[in-house]
Amino acid sequence: MAAYVCAAVNALAAVALATVLAPGVSLAPTASQPSYVADHLAAWRLGWGLWIAAALSLLAFFRWWASRIGWSPIARAAILVAVAGVLADVIAEGRLIAWSPGQPFDVDGALRLSGIGANGSYSLAGAMLTSRTRGLPAWLAQWSWTVWVLGIALAVAVAAGSDPWARLLTAGLFVLFLPWLVAFGRRLA
User: Fold this and answer.
1) Per-residue burial over 112-133, b = 16 or more CB atoms within 10 Å of its CB, e = otherwise
2) Which residue segment(s) compose the domain that 82 sits in?
3) Domain count, the chain
4) Spatial CB neighbours of 93, under 8 Å, sequence gap ≥ 6
5) What are the Cα distances from residue 111, in Å, to 16, 31, 127, 133?
6) Spacing of C-alpha 158 from chain mean position
């Protein structure tokens, strides 16, 4: 169940990013972003609230995963790394939710915290758990590693300030990640 809930909540968050949030987010801020957000403030806040829910659902999935493979020191460390990612996401997305017209618009700082701190942490935690998961078929192991490598590449793109690469890697990551959750969840269940 944890994998399916995580997939559903992350799918909703990805749709919000692609539709409502995209015009207001960029690593290369524009003068029109604050006015777009001000004109769509309720949807903006709801969209970032979905991303907080997505982070929490991912943490729940990681915890479920760790319980399925055994609570080795690596699995415990992976959960701590994932918790750090959730904290980064909640802080970043909380800042985006709390923004009000007339305040300085620091979307770049929040996106960097989420993109580097959270995505990097989630990808590292996923890689740690994958390394401790035995008996995966080769295709599922390769798919798993591809997801985590894309997540790390996304963190690197955000750190480098490359908006085009960050957008491309985000899209690629979610195209692979959402069905991976379902396939991987079925395998571990």
Assistant:
1) bbbbbbbbbbbbbbbbbbbebb
2) 2-188
3) 1
4) 48, 49, 51, 52, 55, 110, 114
5) 15, 17, 23, 31
6) 13
The pLDDT tens digits along the chain (189 residues) read 999 999 999 999 999 999 999 888 876 667 788 888 999 999 999 999 999 999 999 999 999 999 999 999 999 999 999 999 999 999 999 999 998 888 887 888 888 999 999 999 999 999 999 999 999 999 999 999 999 999 999 999 999 999 899 999 999 999 999 999 999 999 998
Q: What is the spatial distance between Cα 177 and Cα 14, in angstroms, rounded to a whole number?
A: 11
Give yes or no for a contact between 82 and 123, defined as CB atoms under 8 angstroms apart.
no
Residues comprising the chain, all counted: 189
The CB density around residue 55, as the number of other CB atoms within 10 Å, is: 25
